[in-house]
Amino acid sequence: MKNVFLNLRWGVLGILVSLASCVSDDLADVGDLEDFTGPTPFYSFTDISTSEFDCNDIELSANYEVNFQAGSNLAVNGTQYLWSVEPGEGITLIHKDLPILRQLIEAELAAVVALEEEIAKLEFRIPCESDMDRVAVLEAEIADLEGQLASAEAAVSEETRQNVADFESQIAALPAATLEDRELIFSFPGPGDYNVSLMVTDNLGKSETTLRTVTINQAVPTIPVPEIGEPSFEDNSLFDGTGDGRDSWRAPNNTDWSPLGGGTTVIQINSTSVEGRLPDGFQAAKFPADGARVAYQEIEVTPGAEYVLTYFSEFDDSGFGDITVSILNPDTASYTESLLDENIVASRTDSNVGRVSDVFKQNAITFQSGENESVIIYVTNTGVESRLDSFAITVKQ
Fold first, then answer.
1. 322 is in which domain, residue-wise?
2. 105 exposed, middle or buried (CB, 10 Å; 0-12, 13-18, 19+)?
């Protein structure tokens, strides 16, 4: 029996040795199969373009810059990358680290940069401002900010100055970007379609190329956010530090805009000394139960834009009541015309059904400006005393 097992053991061993010899690298034409797998290139890109327009939407400058990052299915040393762009006229290359270093400098000088940006915003508004009272206020604000800027610059520490100098030295020492960089920034001469190809070569010399068409869109001006005067009905909240919370909301005349056909239409004001009781500040607009008071304000908008108007409402619960906020075409000339469908851009009516007295709820109206360069915000109520507070408007992207 022992001899049987011994013979079996040596027989298995012989088979294993025989199999091993079949894959020996020493045998001619026998061995590991050649790896025919080549690289699979791909890339991603991020648009980092910037542009500047004046207040008449005339383009002052535009930098069409896109960050490209190459990749492949291989993670071996010696992989090479080669970019190509058609058409290539006017294209320049930027080192990928340049924007990062510039951002680090801005972070070091955050207080100074914030003041510089605020001054630039105010200076941008002055050339297109026709109200000289507003110009005077803007100029005074700029003068005050320039004083703050001088103080902020003087307060920059030596450590911060050294950090900024170090980053500037790193920028000066950056090597020139090349088409062989794995990541780089292309600066395109203008909008259009560009064929961007990437060839990847592995350490065995095998190459593959991927090609994509990248569309660079024409820069467009940012749609400005409309300004609502005295949005929370606070005293002294006009641009020049004046106002009683109602001045921006007065109808052109009582006779045309009164729902009752006459009498005063100016809104009333509720106030509180308790912070946090109202959605914003210490005053809210009050609309008595008889529906005689209205809110009226014309605001500038950009034709073709879409907006979201938000506000907070609150009701007494002594009976049924509602309040209507309408967006009207600028040619609307009376309360009667405000009820016509052709004059209503958008409208929302909220009632006190299910509401709790003294509790404000936020509401929203989405509307498109169409061909209008301005619209009218118009508010009426019925039934019970109602209140509004904290109007705001945003551009819907």
1. 247-395
2. middle
